[in-house]
């Protein structure tokens, strides 16, 4: 049973890498991953692909919209690894972490190039 549907940028190598890691830990199939660059996004009229390309979006099983690091924390919590990201949601760190995330998201293709050697995924291929 899907508990969280995540809308990610399938052209971003780092984004694809993160979704792959999540999938490896998703033994209970709690997550559904939707690439905003693919036609499947049309099945979700409440999700604006342009906005979802600016900040990570997800919808939980109650149809609540989650954004940015709230998505990351919820997803990793559902696969049993939320403790890794929990500090990013602590009130004393949250605002700082969210502003860094927004900056990172805006520049994710540059970060991808620097960290993976590839700026964009081509035809679903994100290898170096």
UniProtKB/TrEMBL annotation:
GO molecular function: protein-disulfide reductase activity
Identification of the protein by name: Redox protein
Species per Swiss-Prot/TrEMBL record: Vibrio brasiliensis LMG 20546
């Amino acid at each position: 049973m899907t508990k969280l549907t995540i809308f990610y940028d399938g052209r971003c190598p780092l984004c694809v890498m993160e979704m792959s890691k999540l999938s490896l830990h998703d033994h209970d199939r709690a997550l559904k991953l939707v690439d905003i660059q693919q036609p499947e996004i049309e099945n979700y009229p409440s999700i604006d692909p342009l906005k979802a390309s600016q900040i990570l979006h997800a919808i939980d099983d109650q149809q609540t919209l989650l954004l940015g690091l709230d998505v990351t924390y919820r997803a990793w919590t559902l696969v049993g690894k939320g403790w890794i990201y929990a500090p990013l949601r602590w009130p004393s760190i949250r605002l700082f972490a969210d502003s860094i995330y927004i900056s990172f998201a805006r520049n994710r293709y540059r970060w991808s190039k620097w960290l993976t050697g590839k700026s964009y995924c081509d035809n679903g291929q994100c290898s170096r």
